[in-house]
Protein: histidine kinase
Organism: Faecalibacter macacae
Amino acid sequence: MEKWQDPNVIILWIVITLILLVVLMIFISYLIKISYKKDIEKRELVFNEKLNSEREMKKAIITTQENERKVIASELHDQISNKLNLVVLKLNALDANTFDTEIGEIKTDIKTLIKKNRDITHYLFPVEIDNLGLFLCIKELCYSSNEFSIDLFADENIDFGPKLVEHQLYRVIQEFITNSIKYSGGNQINIHIKNINNQVSILISDNGIGMDLNNINKGLGINNTETRLDAINAKFKYKSGKNKGTRLIIKLCPTK
């Protein structure tokens, strides 16, 4: 009997063949796994690049808007406020005993215009943020309403990062306060700002009627909030319930 016909030899070759097949299958599976992993990584890379691109685009749009607001606010201040103040000074210098009432009314109207102009310029571009910082500007917001009690609880030494971040956070807080006053039916707003493990967290809440988060009205400044917070890469979440008020939780990216 030939050696290759020996049953032991045949069994050996069968075993070797099976081992080779198993090794080949393992190798093919490994290649498929590597290929799949690379495909996933490639898809994630494309997704992240798209996400970053969208975020940078939003950031650029918001930066442009802020610059435009700054120019408009500056023009309003320089061209209107200064001239109105000059008119008031001239009226004060007049000796018009027979027109005291009329002049008094004119002065009142002009002072009202000056205040409205100041409010508009402050809304368009809160210049004080660049000079005083976000914390003091938020404190000023707390005194902006006679209808609501607005309380701030915060560490004054918190570093919010670039000015763009401060401007957007100010806008978001301002928007929340405005919406609460208009729609919530409450009378109290609390603002908590804290820094835990180099991550700034902001909680804004009111004691109003709340809102249906499943049927939220995007026209109430929600879209603006999403755009502004996404542009500075901040995470946020709304919480609300019937007659339980509304809360907005914001978390900034941790600083190094």
